[in-house]
Amino acid sequence: MKKYPDLLSPSVNDITKALIEETLAVIRLNKNKTVITPLNLLGCNGAPIADNGWVLSQKRRRRKILLILKELEQDGVLIRRAAKQDFKGIKEVGYDLGE
Known about the structure:
alpha+beta, two-stranded antiparallel ribbon, 42% helix
């Protein structure tokens, strides 16, 4: 099982499309059938996503990841799900990996 790239340590401005693509490549390599959302990507890195206070404090980081996921959807890398994912009252757009 390959290790996920770190999305927690870098500043929000250092999160790039390449870093997210690398994370998605690891998910694909590990054959994870997970729904791709900003919170799930952070959770893959060991983020305390069960701590609602921490999640709420990471709004800029989640928004930046979401913008990159939207770009990847336009590039055909991700497929948007019809329904939003709900985690502890936070609704997020979910994606599946494209072929």
